[in-house]
Each structure stands twice: as C-alpha cells, then as structure tokens.
Amino acid sequence: MSISITPIGIIETPFDDLKGMPIQPSGADKIQGTIIIDKEYEEGLSDLEGFSHIILLYHFHKSKGYNLMVKPFMDDQQRGLFSTRAPRRPNPIGLSIVRLIKIEGKRVTIEGIDVLNGTPLIDIKPYVPRFDIKDVTAVGWLENRQEQVASSKSDGRFILGQQQD
Amino acid sequence: MSISITPIGIIETPFDDLKGMPIQPSGADKIQGTIIIDKEYEEGLSDLEGFSHIILLYHFHKSKGYNLMVKPFMDDQQRGLFSTRAPRRPNPIGLSIVRLIKIEGKRVTIEGIDVLNGTPLIDIKPYVPRFDIKDVTAVGWLENRQEQVASSKSDGRFILGQQQD
Predict the structure, then answer these.
(1) Which residue of chain A is at minimal alpha-carbon distance from B43?
(2) B125 at the A interface (CB within 8 A)?
(3) A99/B26 Cβ within 8 A
(4) Which tens digits make up the pLDDT trace of A50-101?
C-alpha cells in the first residue's frame, strides 16, 4: 500500500549543488533560505510566526535508490541506514529544524538550512520543546563526532552518511 | 509532481482508537510500543541500538482531508494548520521522537509513543542533539500550554489541534 505525497512548496537556498553544502543545519547556522509555499496553502501559515523554530519535512529529490548499509561521512565503517541521516532511503524524506526569521505572505525566511536549492517541501510543523527536546543519553556511532559534523562540508561525494554515486 | 511513499513497517501500540490516546509522546512517557519492520529492511537497523532516542516518521492513516485553519486541542481560537501538529494535513505525515529500548531482529521496542495501533511507519532516523535540539525562544500560541498538553488525553473529538470529524 503506497501513499501519495504532493509538495506544498519549494525551498530556495544558496546551494545549487551538493559540493560545499553543509552536512546539516547545525553546520549552516547562518545560512538563510526562503520557503515559497504554494498559494493555496498560504492561509495555513497563520500563527506560525510566533515560533522561533520550525520543523521542515522535504523530499530528497536528487536521491535515487538506497543501500541498507552505508559508510557515513567521516566514519570508517559501514553503518545501518536507519542509524544515519543519509538522503538515499527507502522513503527519501528529509527533516531539518530551522530558525524562523519572518513570514511575508507565502514567503517564509528561515535560517540554518542545509538543503539543495529547489528542494520540494512536504510539511511544516512547529518545533515544540515539550515534544521535541529529549534528554539524550547516547548517540551511538556519532559519539565524539557531533562537533566534527557541525563544521564539515560535503565534498560532493559524501553527505551525512551517504555516498553520492 | 507527486512522490510515492511505501511503508517500511508498522507500529504496534496499546491504542486501538483515538479515545484516551495521549496527545503527544510527552504525554505518553511510559507507554511502550513495538515497531515491526519489514524483513527486507531489517539490516538497516544495524547500529541503531546505540542511540537513546529515535525519530519516527509515519502515516496518519486514519486522517482524511484537512482544513487550513483548525481549532487546537484546549485552545479557543482557530490557528493556522502549519502552526499545529494536527494529523489532518495536506501530507498526513506524523513525527514523534521516542526512547529506544531494544532491538531484537526486526522488532524495535520503543517508549513514549502516541500513535494508533497499526500505524504505517515511513522512516526511522537517529535523534542527534547537535541537529535536533534547538535553543528555542518562542513557542507561539502554545506559550503556557505545553505542560497542559503533556498531561492531556484525547477525548476522541480533538487531538493536538485537530477536530476529529
């Protein structure tokens, strides 16, 4: 049984190709982008501006296929796909939490964005500490690698766990 | 242009209907559930057990249609859909961050789950503080309502922003 998803808008960013793109929003803290939401959904943006952060779900539209074991960026071992944020997944949906700067009509300015220019947007949700901030006690194979990831850029071959073939 | 999504497994929970279901995982801190991942994806669970928390994306399979303005649970005003976590959305994909208890083959035991029994799972991602924990300064209309939400249960008519028709 498959589910049909239709993008609700597009994300504009300075990144026209994978080369030099930050690995995740935390490595793109000051990078601004703009969501252009389709006119028919504009009313749904009401009340969103009160939130400092929002969750974006989007389509990894340049990803094709997937492998269940992948060699993450800056790791030296194969890891299970679901323990990575690799774009090549059975369902290539990405998740980024970004700072909301302003909303003008159907244009939403965001900061800390790490996706390719033209990425199809699937959903926007408010980021709510009570639901979304957890008391983490273990980060698996990323232990000691979090700060590294934050300051890294894609070299065009790898991006957060994914070999770009 | 639409995207076709195929579930990778199913989430088993104690909640067979919306009545009495917690509003979000934070209101279901001790509730355990089990992900049964399809056999063909089992290898992708490798290395995941090292993480204390995981992000689940799933299909709000009981949701039909949507409204761009909704009256959230325990709020007295209509709010823009994208400022809520309502299940009835243009793309009815839900997001929950849960505690990972254990993995046995294709069975993943989780804690703090708030979805209906039989919910189709779309993706699992590791929860990584460096990407996913943000320094929130504003929560919009949820201001002063976060603790309330945490201790509330659905009455079968409303669930986090959505009127269940």
Answers:
(1) A68
(2) yes
(3) no
(4) 999 999 999 999 999 999 999 987 688 999 999 999 999 999 999 999 999 9
Selection from B8, B13, B10 nearest residue B43 by Cα? B8
Which chain B residue's Cα is nearest to A144? B130
How far lies A82's CA from each of A48, A52, B44, B56, in Å? 30, 29, 5, 10
Contact A126 B139 (CB under 8 A): yes
Q: Do B138 and A51 touch (CB under 8 A)?
A: yes
pTM for this prediction = 0.89
Q: How far apart are CA A67 and CA B113, in angstroms?
A: 28
End-to-end CA distance of chain B: 29
Q: Which two tokens stand for residue A38?
A: 């389709």
Query: pLDDT digit string (tens) for B10-54?
Result: 999 999 887 767 665 555 678 999 999 999 999 999 999 999 999
CA distance to partner chain A, nearest, from residue B19 (Å): 20
Give the integer Cα–Cα distance in Å for A62 and A94. Answer: 12
All structural domains of chain B: 9-163 (2.40.30.70)
